[in-house]
Amino acid sequence: MIQNNSAEIANTVAGRVLTINRVFNAPRSVVFKAFTDPKRMLQWLGPRDYPASFVEADVRPGGKWRACLDSAANGEELWHGGIYHEVVPDERLVFTFAWDQEDGKAGRETLVKIDFEDLAGKTKMQFQQSEFDTVENCEGHRQGWNSAFDRLEELLA
């Protein structure tokens, strides 16, 4: 009976946990700073067609972060933010992520975990965001984050 419950739980989560692994050609401290310094984040955060126009971050456990992604094509602003839960310099970030709703309140929250590992002068990043309400939302975030990480890769080159 317990195995059936475990299988049911696994099936409900399938496709709603986003995992992205990347290797950046820069030291861990440089990559970590790109994730924690708002001035650096403005240079890469957001997909190519929705780059960040505003970023603020109080990078400490309990500290808040907030950002806005802007589409020049249609003038749409996408506000989002969250709270840092874990900050281990050059090693790990854990924070919540929620899009603002039309009334300005935070929408459904996901949890982002990012681990940074030294790889002979390069940085291996393991990114996970979970749990999304739908497979489609998870896939949309996969596309968005990968586009942003492409921009980060270019910035670090």
UniProtKB/TrEMBL annotation:
Top-level taxon: Bacteria
Domain (Activator of Hsp90 ATPase homologue 1/2-like C-terminal): residue spans on this chain: 25-156
InterPro entries the UniProt entry points to: ASHA1/2-like_C, START-like_dom_sf
Pfam families reported in the protein's UniProt record: AHSA1 (PF08327)
Record-linked CDD domains: SRPBCC_CalC_Aha1-like
The family this protein is said to belong to: Belongs to the AHA1 family.
Name of this protein: Uncharacterized protein YndB with AHSA1/START domain
Highest classification ranks of the organism: Bacteria, Pseudomonadati, Pseudomonadota, Alphaproteobacteria, Hyphomicrobiales
